[in-house]
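chain below, 252 aa
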Amino acid sequence: MIQQSLKDRLAAREVIVGTFVKTPSPIVAEVLALTPLDCICLDAEHAPFDRGTLDTCILAARAGGMDSLVRIPSAAPEHILNALDCGATGVVVPHVRSAEQAEAIAKAAHYGNGGRGYAGSSRAAGYNTVAMAQHQQNSAARTVVIAQIEDPEAVDDIEAIARVSGVDALFIGRVDLTVAYGAESQDDPRVVAAVDRIVTAAVAADKPVGMFLARVEDVPHWRERGATLFLLGSDHTFLLAGARDLAARVKH
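prediction:
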């Protein structure tokens, strides 16, 4: 049986659950590949990943059959190229603020005139063992492009962003929205209204939408509203929670 791609599962509105990886170690990626998670997201925006550590973490995830996304440092085409050439399933692009920018990242992630540069020697292309036409076909069928929405300007333009072809999903950065609106809590009415508007626009445009949530208990509410992609917690939170639980159980 051929396993359905993450891209197809997103499009089918399956509930996708992943977590962020903040530690630039292939062992962490390898261990998480043993879990029932649907994917991991290597956080090259906020954690100390370089090209080499991204490469080995993506390698470890692929070896374990785990889809890997990379939250790249910025929307620069070279960051998109690096992650995809290393063999990542897709990219999460932070601070997408307009439909024009969304169109640019979609173009940079796919082959074609003015788009992603081609190298048959990459892991993604099978180190020159896959014909160019076949690799381009595989890439088009499997590459996932996710636009992270976390700025007031993006919320203002969200209906247009949601309609951009080539962007496979929107991802809501609720913490950055909280900061951008000058709010003290992610439950501030302005933040909640912004999240709701993003989800509404995505559903209206038939675009998958997801988010990070600090409270897993909030997932059912947003699933009911139409969200299906949840990148929750991180390897750091797992370590902290496990250590706290162990200490409490022994010292109680």
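The chain has one domain: 6-251. Strands lie at 16-21, 39-43, 67-71, 90-93, 144-149, 169-172, 209-211, 229-234.
thats it, cya
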